[in-house]
Design a protein that fits this description.
89 residues; alpha+beta; 2 helices
Length: 89
């Protein structure tokens, strides 16, 4: 996990604002990220298709909420073509 920002606990509306930011920003349009409020800040969970995408999401959230401690638990999925045919029974 990576932590961004450095303040106290966020108020209860910040989670919804981050969800809205990620879903409505046309450059992000990400709905697969879950935001969970913890004692010391927020944790972003989910999976994205590249490290660049993860960093862009974290940059935008930290830019919009500079006083909120953000911890990232966003993984990267490698979407590759299958190497062999799937056999169904």
């Amino acid at each position: 996990m990576t932590e961004y920002g450095a303040a106290g606990p966020p108020d209860e509306y910040v989670e919804a604002e981050i969800h809205r930011l990620l879903a409505e920003d046309p450059d992000v349009a990400e709905q697969g990220i879950t935001v969970v409020r913890r004692e010391r800040g927020l944790v972003l969970y989910g999976e994205v298709e590249s490290p660049h995408r993860r960093e862009e999401i974290l940059r935008r959230v930290a830019e919009r909420f500079p006083d909120v401690a953000i911890t990232s638990d966003i993984g990267v999925i490698r979407a590759q073509a299958p190497t062999q045919a799937e056999e169904l029974p």
